[in-house]
Amino acid sequence: MTTRHARRIGIDLAALAVLYAVSFYIMAHFRVMEALLAPGGDSARIYVAVAVTFLLLRFFVIFLAPGWFLARVCFAVLSRPLESQTASADTR
Amino acid sequence: MSQTNATRASRTRRRTWTIRIAAALLFLTPPFVVPRLWCGRGADAFYDGQLDAVRPLAEGVATWVSDGIGQSDFDTGNSCFDGEWHFGTYQMAALGLLQVIAAHPETRERYLPLVEKCVDRLLEPEIRAFDTSAWGNDAMSTLDSGQGHCAYLGYLNIVLCAYRKVSGQSKYDDPNDRITAALVRRLGQAPQGIIETYPDEAYPVDNCAAIASIAFYDRVTGADHSELVGQLVRQLGEAHTDPQSGLLYQAVDHLTGEKYDKPRASGTALGAYFMSFGDMDLSRRMYAALRRSCAARLAGFAAIREYPPGTKSGQGDIDSGPVVLGLSFSGTGFTLATARINKDRELYKGLYRLGCLVGAPINRARRRTFVCGGPLGNSIMLAMLTAGGIP
After folding, report:
1. Residue B45 lies in a domain
2. What is the pLDDT of residues B275-309, one digit of tens each?
3. Which domain holds residue B202?
């Protein structure tokens, strides 16, 4: 894995972690979930949108992100010898 | 030379595909492993009632109670719902903390004063303003009348009985005696064994709380209303229950018994929890119906459908929360309680995982808080996760 690959994966991971932490803070601070849990009430739509966005992000982090990062690491690690192999063959 | 190049190109292609397949497998495998492990942390400890697991959540709820919650803390967009949630927060907090005390008597000194704070709040006119507003009169000042006030009185009476049982103290005996007498009289005169929550609105789930509180009162005080309770339980289990699914009808006419709403899981699940304080047999039957007709499972997660199979699903309301893919927020949360009471570890863990996925718990300063739950959600989770603690 090149430094460039590692840096990109690291930056994405850090960005996701920060986004996730900030969204936790928003949910805890503004209690927007209550609007979503009371569909009979005349809730502000923005609250519902924020709550749904948070849940989608949480689902992504728990269900998809681990596999996504593993797959990217796999590509980065295994593609490297392949690239160098192709490059050396071209040189010859 | 060209043959060597062709072989090399073929090998490269094969290797590229191997990498792609490996990456695809790495991408697809974690969703079946990580979420169930991530969201299932602590499920067994809660199921087993370990104090290390229960205490942080109880501390989280204790903080809400200590800080005090007002109706302005709720923002459902409807003042009646705000009032119900305000009331429900203290009711569930009191029940949850009493269950913790019953299971871990060493916590009594810490939590009993908080329970008393909850009960004091529950008895204040301000907290039942939603009920007063709907009826046009105060539930506690009109106990001699024939009006229902079923939800406020029934839910409160369960807490008063639980307090009496767990604390052994007589601080709230007077309201407990008076409310029980009023419920006995009103239910005894009800033609369908159902009394109103609000004028012309009757909900079997609220009556579960009222009826269970009478049976609970008998168990705690030695009084005997077994004949009336037996008759009311029979009516609930037969006239107000869907014979096919075994679920309670959500709303009925208190005079004719006509069904105004479909059989639904949210009412049945909460009713089964309340009924566990009064008539274990009916509670078990309701739980069995929920499990049979509404439980859905996937990859270690479990949820409860709001409507039984063959019934057209609605979008959800204040009782169920939003119904997404037919699944019920409240039904899922409330079924946690009866899964534990009925010693169903597998379903409990599945429901717990979903509760953690959606509720998003965080641990901070020795407290555990479901950030999506707010005061009501956290109180409900405490009561549901520790259900069955009061003998």
Report:
1. no
2. 999 999 999 999 999 999 999 999 899 999 999 98
3. 51-289+373-385
The total domain count for chain B is 1
Q: Is A9 an interface residue toward B (CB < 8 Å)?
A: no
Residues on chain B touching A74 (C-beta within 8 angstroms): 19, 22-23, 26
Whose tokens are 């430094």? That residue is: A3
Q: Is B34's CB within 8 Å of A63's CB?
A: yes
Q: Looking at the partner chain, which of A36, A58, A70 has a beta carbon nearest the beta carbon of B30?
A: A70
Q: How is residue B239 annotated by DSSP?
A: T
Residue B3 lies inside a defined structural domain of this protein: no
Of A40, A70, A85, the CB nearest to B81: A40
ipTM of the complex: 0.78
CA B299 to chain centre: 24
B203 found inside a domain: yes
- Residue B27: which of A40, A67, A89 has the nearest Cβ? A67
Test the B interface: residue of A1, A20, A29, A37 with most B CBs within 10 Å: A37
* C-alpha radius of gyration, chain A, whole number: 20
Does residue A79 sit at the B interface (CB-CB below 8 Å)? yes
Q: How crowded is residue B150: how many other Cβ atoms within 10 Å of its Cβ?
A: 30
Query: Model's pTM, two decimal places?
Result: 0.89
Identity (one letter) of the amino acid at B139? A
Phi and psi of B231, rounded to 5°? -65, -40
A34 in contact with chain B, both atoms CB, cutoff 8 A: yes
Beta strands B327-328 and B321-324, pairing class: antiparallel
Q: What is the three-class DSSP state of B48?
A: coil
What pLDDT digit, counting tens, does each position of B62-109 carry?
998 998 887 777 777 778 888 898 999 999 999 999 999 999 999 999
CA distances from B71 to A73, B82, B372, B381 (A): 50, 6, 18, 20
Amino acid residing at B326? G
